[in-house]
Amino acid sequence: MPVLWGVSFDATAMSGVVVEFIKIAKSFADQGYRVHLDLGYDIKADKGRFFQPYQHERVPDWITLDRVDGVARIAGYDREFVAATLEAVRHDQVPDADRIVAELADAIVRTWEDRGVTLVMVENGTLPENVTYTKALYRAIAMYGAAHDLGRYVLWRDHDLMWQSEPAKYGSFPYPSTPPMVNSPHIHYFALHEEAKRRTLEWMPHLRYLDVLPNTFTAPSRPARPDFREHYGVPRDAKIVARFTRIIPQKRIDRDLHLVARLPGTWLFVAGDTEENPEETGKLRQLAAELQVPVVFGGVLEPCESTGNGFSVRDLLAHADVVSFLTSYDYESYGNPIGEAIAAGVPYIASSYALYDTVYAGFQAPVLDIVAHDLPTPEFARQVQDLMTNAERRAEVVAHNQQLGTHHRAAANALVSDLFPPAMGEHVRLSVVLPVYNEATNIHDVLRSLHDQDEIDPETYEIVLVDNNSTDDTVAIARAFAERSKVPLHVIGEPEQGVAPARRTGMEFAAHRSRARRDPGERFYLVSADADCRVDRRWLVELFVAMEKDKAAIGVCDYYYSAEHFVGRPRLWDAIQRTLRCRAVTFSLFGGFPDGKGFAVEREAYESVGGIEIFYQLQHGRFVNHLSDDWDFGIKVRGSGHDITYAPRSKVEINPRRVNHALDEVIAGRAYGNDGIIVMRDIRPEAPERAVDLTEAEALQAWEFSIKDFTPKNTILPVLLTPSFLDEDAVVAFFGEDLASRIGTRIAEIRAEMSVVDFLPIHSYKTPTYRLYFEFRDEIFARLRATVGEDIGFPPPLPECFDDVPEDRFAEFVKYYCEDRESGEAHNYFGNGGVF
């Protein structure tokens, strides 16, 4: 059973921070997680609970209150040390505590090992209350994550942002003594609203994996106790203004007393710990007596989510007429009581604290302008009175706020489920990774084709959709599909634009999750699919069978265009079919190379070569990621000694828009770039497609670029990377013994001449591949004509620069042409993505 470990830097049994932890943790508990919560008694100094045992803390029964073992035995680490450290932080002086950090980190790791922790939630960990513990936590996360090969297993949320909103207590920007947030491969950070995110990035501009996760609105799960009023002595006909909060000066409960003094027949109910600050409690009692306000100090109620027999905040909400949040201007980042009121269908009132409009934009409530008026005004009291007594107005406000709150809750739940999805099913053998960007038009049909696979159990595979910053309805459509899908569908995001980063993120996500499944020595496969191509109904089972049978590292599919899309365009159709016929022959011989439209890679092989690598190139003075990550990945796998198998009955239909809306570029041989720059081109239609056929000249040009792009990659590159192919009977039969022998000899000569250790780096293999093409092109085309068909024809004309090159110096000038680092002429000659 997976285990969630939560740690709160609040050191309070029940606070807004802990309540929000419970709401998020409940979604994991529903997935089968055991939930452990460290309330932070051994972290924060000012609450007076350091090393205090748990006794009467009220949390739901599905939560185990826990803490790090052996902390009290760490020499020098106690309440006094933490208080002194915080005082030093306020003066930008942090004492040396490396030993304590190391011992704390070790204790955390040992505890997590003992409990079997698989997921960690940190609440307010960046708060400078205990910078030593924060440093230790970062260290423990790195150690534990590396030891267990965990991905981003930590949800780190800075709830109150007090280090930004209370400069008098914690210091001011740029917080030199606060431990900086680290770009850890194990941590996903969350701020509670966009302003908090903006201010966090102002402090840490290079921080990645920071999202907004607002507080949620969870509707009541049980009926309220009817004896609530009677128990606390509140008359049945009295109105109740509810305030559930810490009883400290910053919360400004005195404002509620002044308000209720203006509301006849109204009681104030304050739910909070009267012993936390006895002096403040005494002042409030005295003020209530002076104002003659009926007030109940009801103590700490059980949380809304509690299923115990005691009175809870839900009971108070059910009997309250309005919930109050008249707090200090610069104190609160996110007022949790407002969220509870919205969820429970109770109107609320608030003060215009600094971030109120940021957090609760669009919600309806009377708001006290505390910049102009420190205490409630008669007009404000009139608005509150109307809200409590005007049934029509009350119902309108409640309905509006609940509708908006439901939207917020759904967005927050979706974010958490995307980033921390359910554990992989124990029978899953394949994860299908699908990078997407603005594919709303196609995505339903693509997902349907991936879902409706024949002769494969839906429990044996899953779909991982990687959203690459879509701005249309792609993700919404995918989520709706997931709700009805028999095949698990996970939606995750990748912020770096480009299919290569998106594919890599999906592959890494699947690989890490697969490690936690039951694995009795079975091979596990990462499968690539494309968001604009549909797979045939036997696509996955044929790919799976081929991989299981051949035990290859990579399995490559067959691709085709549907003839119905090219009716009336015989010249274009002929050029496409000739290329695909050549592909069928060479892939049968060499296994081919993976294409993002459909391939599978065995997980161990994927990880052994370092996974998908993203190459970067300069384009117009900016770095851009290289498009052909799938091809380059195949080269790494092949060049590392792994086998690639071809599954010809595993078929993918290519979307015709790849030709229709890039036809001019295909004809000219620059479909995806120029001068050696190969980058993604958006081929979604912006204008009516070109539905007419090619002219004879265009057809010839398109075919020549296609075959020039195809031949070096598919007939020469395989043997360059794996010369042992030239010893196989089928390959010798294709080339002929003499040609196969001469190609092998020439590869060895070029390798020695270039002093190349291997041909894996992209610019190491391109030059020799192009050279071999020029030197052997006539003989290779003769073999293609003999094997594929006479219509393959002859090699396209050489570049004009070779017209004046003497025959005996041809190979010499081919070398310089292919290695030209100024113009990229060889790249342009060979088409740079012109293949169909």
Automatic annotation (TrEMBL):
Top-rank taxon of the source lineage equals Bacteria
**One Pfam family per UniProt:** Glycos_transf_2
Q: Which UniProt keywords apply?
A: Glycosyltransferase, Transferase
| One of the record's GO molecular function terms | glycosyltransferase activity
The record's section on InterPro entries has: Glyco_trans_1, Glyco_trans_2-like, Glycosyltransf_2, Nucleotide-diphossugar_trans
What EC number(s) does the entry state? 2.4.-.-
- Annotated signal sequence is none
- According to the entry, every stretch annotated as the Glycosyltransferase 2-like domain falls at 431-590
Q: Which residues form the Glycosyl transferase family domain?
A: 226-358
PANTHER family assigned:
GLYCOSYLTRANSFERASE, GLYCOSYLTRANSFERASE 2-LIKE DOMAIN-CONTAINING PROTEIN
- What is the official name of this protein in its record? Glycosyltransferase
Q: Which organism is it from?
A: Lentzea miocenica
